Amino acid sequence: KGRGGDHSELGAVDAEAFCLEHGMSRYEARIVAWLVRHHLLLSTTAQKKDIGDPAVINDFAATVGDKTHLDYLYVLTVADVRGTNPKLWNSWKARLFRDLYDATVRALRRGLENPIDREYLISETQTASRELLQQSGMPEAERIAIWGAFTEDYFLRYRSEEIAWHSRILARAGAAAEEGLLDIRRQAGGDGVEAVLYTPRTMRTFAHATAALDELGMTIVDARVVPIRNGYSLDTFIFMELDRSIHVDELRLRRIRQALTQILRKADSGVAKVTRRAPRQVRMFPTRTTVEFDTDVANRRTIMELVARDRPGLLSTVGQVFLNLGVEIETAKVMTIGERAEDVFYIVDSQDDPLRPELCETLREQLTAKLDTQE
Q: 0.90 exceeded by the pTM?
């Protein structure tokens, strides 16, 4: 770094020369050079792209090429993140990286000439989910009725264990689910907390939920908003304490549940407010807000990447702007690096189409104005 140019490309040349000078074979030297050149690939793909999209998995698998390179890259990525800053590593990131690794292994097994497709992923996920529900004793007719509202995108966005959890929640609620429902739990196999809200799409669930969690002093690491066929959506959030502490006691869980339950009772469309101030050390490092757009042609949606100073109420503010402009969130990839928030949103307009250029520009202007003036 600091020599001008891409440090990954410059480093790859240096690494290959170093390996050859120290007696490694040409093949070994080329693997090391490839790893240096692509050392950010797995991390950025997992954290900034929609790994529920088969096209993303296929492109990643095509770049990796084989399981040997994948294995080395996976180990290097984990070591790199933990070596850079041990506080950046958590169970959510471990699970995200592992999900990408497992999906890529499946894609490589099928062969690059026979890329993984939506039907394959959906079928595999549904089979695993069905087995979990059968083990829990859910009647087949009940499962079929519940799954009738789930879209293909739903089965691409969630893991089989999560689908089984959602299905059991809806089954327990029965007709009462029409008024909206909520469930929270400690993250399965992790150190965060998961919340799922089943609400009409007309509710301000994302903006209000992120505001409530911010006000409680939680940091959100993952958010997904998946519309389903009956006019409702499933909003799921994974979050943890700001100090990354693992233990969340029952009293804390009860407070979180109470705060999120208030969202289901909101009859008005008022603005969600966050009164908690950002820590002093975060306010000392200004980060200029930037908003960039790209188009996901295959899935007919817009990709918006936001870089801004992290602060309480950031996601809630973004959610409010989306609502005011009629923008719908399909999924969000939330990442905080020190005082910087680097979040990616997959969004559509009120007609479920990609955003028009003029709407993108309006969205950029409003987000920049609100976030750069927000204390």
A: no
